[in-house]
Amino acid sequence: MDLFAFFGNLLWPIKWVIEAILVAFHEILTFFGMDADAGLTWVLSIVGLVLVVRAALIPVFVRQIKSQRRMMEVAPQLKKIQDKYKGKKDQFSREAMSRETMAMYKNAGTNPFSSCLPLLLQMPIFFGLFSVLRNAQLEGNAPGVGLLNAELSESFGTSSLFDIAPLHLAISTAEGNVAVIITAVIMVILMTGSQFITQLQIMSKNQSAEMKASPMYRQQRIMLYLLPLVFAFSGFTFPLGVMFYWLVSNFWTMGQQFLVIRNMPTPGSEAALAREARLAKRNQRKGIVEETPDAGTIVIEEPKNPQREQPVSKNRAKKKQGKKK
Question: Domain spans of the chain?
Answer without folding.
Answer: 3-74+110-273
